[in-house]
Amino acid sequence: MKKIKLTLEKHQTLREKIANSIREAIIKGSLKPGERIAEPDLAEKFGISRTPLREAFRQLESEGFLTTIPRRGAVVSSLTEKDVKEFYEIKSLLEGYAASLATEKLTEKDLKKMSSINFQLEKLAEDGDAKGFFKIHNDFHDVFWKAAGNEKLFELINNVMKQFRRFRIASLILPGRMSISVSQHKQIIEAFKNKDKDLAKQLVMENAKIGGEVLLKELLKSTLL
Question: pTM score, two decimals?
Answer without folding.
Answer: 0.75
